Amino acid sequence: MDPLVLGVVGFGLLLVFLVLRVPIAFSLGSIAVFCIVIYFSWPEGRDLNLDRGWRASVSVLTSNSYDFIHSFELTMIPLFILLSNVAHVSGITTDIYRAARVWLTRLPGGLAISSVIGCGGFSAITGSSVACAAAMGKICVPEMLRANYGPRLATASVAAGGTLGSLIPPSVPFILYGIFTETPISRLFMAGILPGILTILAFILVILIWVKVSPSEAPAVEEDRMPGERRQAAIAAWPAILLFTIVIGGIYGGLFTATEAAGVSAATAVALGFGLGRMNTSQLFNAAKDTVKQTAMLFLIAFAAKIYVSFISLTGLAPWLVAGIESLELATWLVVALICVVFLILGMFLDPIGILLLTLPFAIPLVESLDLNLIWFGVIVIKLLEIGLITPPVGLNAFVIKSVVGKSISVDTIFAGISRFLVAEIIVLTLLVAFPIISLFLPMTQF
Fold first, then answer.
1. Quick check: 446 pLDDT over 60?
2. CA separation (Å) from 158 to 122, 152, 193, 211, 393?
3. Is 271 exposed, middle or buried (0-12, 13-18, 19+ CB in 10 A)?
4. What span, in angstroms and rounded, lies between the C-alpha atoms of 381 and 339?
5. pLDDT per residue over 289-302, tens digit each?
6. Alpha carbon 171 to chain centroid distance?
7. pTM of the entire structure?
8. Sign of the C-alpha dihedral computed for residues 116, 117, 118 and 119 taken in this order
9. Span 329-369, pLDDT tens digits
10. Mean residue pLDDT across the chain
11. I want to staple 132 with a disulfide (CB 3.0 to 4.6 A). Which of 86, 162, 214, 334 is the partner?
């Protein structure tokens, strides 16, 4: 069987499975194994022989599995997930939100701005967009609704703010991107900082303009404050700031590798949880149990994706696609624009991890053929995944917020509010594509 035909058929089957909502790990793994067996059982110009194909397939599958499982960089995933869970149960992740709320409540749209900043602080520790939207949604949305904020602003600000977990380090999508592209993860983390800050500023600008045009969406909130409350709130956020400093300061200062920073920050979070009296052994056990579940899920997806990448490599589909695009002699900016459009379309229907692992085998050879920087491209990819989290009809963060508010607010209302933040996201994406220095400045100046 022609390898290219097999590659196209395998890719088409994968898209069908994903549209049918078959779990991404089973979709990637089952189709890759089936197609690899066919590849070796039915070489072009020869008869089908399943026995011969199965023996060859087992050899390829076991060698790839061994290489993947023994990847040292993988160890940082459970460590950062543990950091996330421990910081959450001990209340460290909400300290920055509380501080921002105390300082910004009286500003126009202050609660919404505080929510965005709180999501940024949560993301700087947890690295999970959906977890950020879920946790902050339970805290911020009810509070804004009690203050008579408009339901569109209250829900959309948290849904959009939750996307920051993909971009602000530590980020699980950045880790997976680094592993599959063999790009230094510490530099990817550095590359995400300025785009993350730029996104936060863009979201705040959206809120300020929104409130200026429609003041009724964010009524002024008057609260009696005790003397020194602002100072106390700022001081109370020190555990979150410490954890962020360990991860980013340690990596940027050359004290830790990304993996070492994951271990040190996770251990520090546990120590802070017990030392500050915010966590007991039962909560630690539950955090560890959740870590095992989440890690197993991610590893299963990544393991299946590794097999899928091997299948794509065998068929030569990626080089064929690259050669076809090169033959069109398109301008580099147009190729990048087309890649962005593909990611945006996929983001309307698929989850971020699925999109990442589905597209990398095709996108990376194309990017390398154009001699583009893989760190810069990694930021663009993660930003596109971030946009997908709030893009209808399957914007995950919107549905996470919907689960928080229940029947009181419709999904249509949430998406109506999100549309304003999507405009800001597209503007930020355009700036990141047009000015790579925004992403590359910190990695280039890393000590």
1. no
2. 12, 10, 20, 16, 18
3. exposed
4. 9
5. 988 988 888 888 88
6. 6
7. 0.84
8. positive
9. 888 889 899 989 888 888 887 778 878 888 888 888 889 88
10. 84
11. 162
Q: How many C-beta atoms surround the C-beta of residue 419 within 10 A?
A: 13
Kindly report the length of the chain. 447
Do residues 35 and 10 touch, judged by C-beta distance below 8 A?
yes
The Cα 262–Cα 229 span in angstroms is 33
- Tens digits of per-residue pLDDT, 205-254? 999 999 999 888 888 766 556 556 677 777 777 888 888 888 878 887 77
Selected residue with higher pLDDT from 385 and 103: 385
Helix H, strand E, coil C: the string for the chain is CCHHHHHHHHHHHHHHHHHCCCCHHHHHHHHHHHHHHHHHHCCCCCCCCHHHHHHHHHHHHHHHHHHHHCCHHHHHHHHHHHHHHHHHHCCHHHHHHHHHHHHHCCCCCHHHHHHHHHHHHHHHHHCCHHHHHHHHHHHHHHHHHHCCCCHHHHHHHHHHHHCHHHHCCCCHHHHHHHHHHCCCHHHHHHHHHHHHHHHHHHHHHHHHHHHHHCHHHCCCCCCCCCCCHHHHHHHHCHHHHHHHHHHHHHHHCCCCCHHHHHHHHHHHHHHHHHHCCCCCHHHHHHHHHHHHHHHHHHHHHHHHHHHHHHHHHHHCHHHHHHHHHHHCCCCHHHHHHHHHHHHHHHHCCCCHHHHHHHHHHHHHHHHHHCCCCHHHHHHHHHHHHHHHCCCCCCCHHHHHHHHHHHHHCCHHHHHHHHHHHHHHHHHHHHHHHHCCHHHHHHHHHCC
Provide the pLDDT for residue 223: 59
Amino acid 418: pLDDT: 92
Apex CA 167: angle with CA 163 and CA 172, to 5°?
Answer: 95
Angle (deg, nearest 10), helices 281-315 and 172-181: 30
- Higher-scoring residue by pLDDT: 230, 258: 258
Tokens found for residue 22: 């078959």
Residue type, 347: G
Please state, in angstroms and as integers, the Cα–Cα distance from residue 99 to each residue in 95, 121, 147, 151, 226, following that order.
Answer: 6, 11, 18, 23, 14
**Residue 90: which of 266, 213, 328, 349 has the closest Cα?**
266
Give the separation between CA 316 and CA 241, rounded to whole angstroms.
47
Per-residue pLDDT, 422: 93
Whether pLDDT at 319 is above 60: yes
The rounded distance, in Å, linking the Cα atoms of 205 and 106 is: 16
